[in-house]
Write a structure and sequence with these properties.
This protein has six helices and five strands, in the order βαβαβαβαβαα. The chain is of the alpha/beta class and about 150 residues long. The longest helix is centred in the N-terminal third of the chain and has 14 residues, at about 40-55.
C-alpha cells in the first residue's frame, strides 16, 4: 500500500517514527513534507497529501498537525479526499469501513506515539464495506456534495 504523509512543524517531531511504523507495516511511504521543524502552514501539507490520495498516486494518506483539526478541515476541501480526525481505534477503523475514509488526521499534541501506532494499524487494516448498499449509498451522497449538488432528506 502506498501511503502519503504530510506534517506541519507540530507533527515534524514524530514524522520519523510515523515513517518507521508505516515501513514496518510494509507500506511504501510518499513523504510530502515538512522537512524541518521550522514553522509552516498546515493547509499546504494537508492539500498535497489529499491531492495525492484523490489522484490515485497514494492509496491512503496521513496528516499530522498539532490538533488534527486544521489538517482535517483543509484536506476535506480536496474533492475525492475523505479525511477523518481520529483519536481512537474504533473511529480509525470504522471511518474506513463505513465512510471510505482515505486520509487519517492526527494531532501530535493529542495522541502519543503508542496510540498513533494503533491508529495507523486500524486505519490501514480496514477496508470499505462496499458490499453493503447503505454505505455505498451514503458515499455516493458525499460524492454528490463534492460536485456541488444539493441533497434533500
Amino acid at each position: 500500500m502506498n501511503v502519503a504523509i504530510g506534517v506541519d512543524h507540530r507533527g515534524y517531531a514524530i514524522k520519523s517514527d510515523l515513517v518507521a511504523i508505516l515501513r514496518a507495516a510494509e507500506c511504501e511511504v510518499i513523504d510530502l513534507g515538512a522537512h524541518s521543524a521550522e514553522s509552516v502552514d498546515y493547509p499546504d501539507y494537508a492539500a498535497v497529501v489529499a491531492e495525492a490520495v484523490a489522484s490515485g498516486r497514494a492509496d491512503r494518506g496521513i496528516i499530522v498537525c498539532g490538533s488534527g483539526v486544521g489538517a482535517c478541515v483543509a484536506a476535506n476541501k480536496v474533492p475525492g479526499a475523505r479525511a477523518g480526525m481520529c483519536h481512537d481505534t474504533y473511529s480509525a477503523r470504522q471511518g474506513v469501513q463505513h465512510d471510505d475514509m482515505n486520509v487519517l488526521c492526527l494531532g501530535s499534541g493529542i495522541v502519543g506515539l503508542s496510540l498513533i501506532e494503533e491508529l495507523v494499524e486500524a486505519f490501514l487494516g480496514a477496508q470499505f464495506a462496499d458490499h453493503e448498499e447503505r454505505y455505498v449509498r451514503r458515499l455516493r451522497k458525499v460524492q454528490s456534495l463534492e460536485r456541488g449538488e444539493r441533497l434533500s432528506p
